[in-house]
Amino acid sequence: MTRSHVGVEITEESVRAVEVSTERQPQVLAYGEIALPPDSAHDSEVLDQGAVATAIRELWSTARIRAKTATLGIANRRVLVREHSTAAIAPEMLRQALPFQVQDLLPVPVAQAVLDYYPTSQQGDQLHGLLVAAVASTIEDMITAFSRAKIRIDGVDLATFGLARAAARIAPEGTAAAVHIGDHTTQIVILRDGIPDFVRITPVDLETLAVRRRNAQIAPEDGTFVAATRVDPTRVAASELVGAAGIVPMGALRSDTGNKPVAEVIGRIRSTLAFYLNKDGVPPIGQVLITGAGAAVDGVAQGLAATLDAPMRTAVLHDVLPLQITEPTGDLALNLVSTAGLALGKDR
Quick one: pLDDT at residue 249? Predict the structure, then answer.
């Protein structure tokens, strides 16, 4: 039997997973996404463990995922990611020293946080890298939901690092920016020769197809996996929900939205790249990869292409890895890029 590992993510709208073989030339063996009932999760935080566990079981069954272990990706506005320099010491010693070094930087007491450190470079006896801090209770709730579904989480990773791993397979050399534009959260990572150098996670609510489905309680038209939860029997056509701008703020559909969320996400991405480029000694960005369901929202890709100075391309799952099964389409192909990168992080 082919050995494999799974990357998983929980968002406000769904739980999704990608199973990847662990051979020298990895391939996608299975993938899927299950819609979550309203109010069961929010911004990578589990609110209803029972509902999320049910969706996880449905996902594993429907997508025919074989592995029973997975790496969980987290990405929400409560995760702290910042540059941090420290003495170059043995990894075990660094793990012990890190809580004392960064306790004044954290939004919660260090005892309530989960810490990680991603080294990016070393100059003399100084190690430079990215500090990641998340609220421990949030991660524990997510792991418990998987445990109730009989899936063991054997690693927790920043979803943005999964995005970086996936982007490095597309742009392994030079300086590139990878941007996952989600339903409610946008992740930005800048890589230099495939190594993350800068990360930012920013909230912006876009009316993706998943958000429209949740708000209107409609069933999908394209065969994408959806949990058998409360679905309006009238099955409103998705095309009837697309407004002129294709966007709404978080909450119910409104008729007066205009294009403010699209302009906001474009502005935040552009200002983040400009902030990075204003740092001393950084090279220009050679290309920008965009992915995530928000990249398909009307006006987002067009607006970014018109405002960014670097060439831009959209990345989907098959750009990252070959597939043994039928390729996903639409928003799912965009959403699974970072999820696949999480699976690639196991033993690599």
Answer: 31
In sequence order, what are the residues at sequence separation of 6 or more whose Cβ sits closer than 8 angstroms to the Cβ of residue 271? none
What are the pLDDT digits (tens) for 145-162? Answer: 999 999 999 999 999 999
Q: Is 315 exposed, middle or buried (0-12, 13-18, 19+ CB in 10 A)?
A: buried
Distance separating alpha carbons of residues 257 and 171, to the nearest angstrom = 36
Q: Same domain for 198 and 285?
A: yes
Q: Report the candidate in 216, 186, 177, 225 with the shortest Cα–Cα distance to residue 330.
A: 225
Q: Which of these three, 70, 97, 131, is where a domain ends?
A: 131
Identify the domain containing residue 118 by its residue range.
80-131
Tell me what the mean pLDDT of segment 295-316 comes to: 95
Please give the model's pTM, rounded to 2 decimal places. Answer: 0.83
Are 166 and 291 part of one and the same domain?
yes
Query: Pairing between strand 80-87 and 113-123?
Result: unpaired
For residue 322, how far is the Cα from the chain centroid?
A: 20
Domain count of the chain?
A: 2
Structure tokens at 227: 């949990």
Helix (H) or strand (E) holding 82: strand 80-87
Last residue of a domain, which of 131, 164, 197?
131
∠ CA(105), CA(75), CA(110), 5° rounding?
30
277 Cβ partners below 8 Å, 6+ apart? Answer: 284, 285
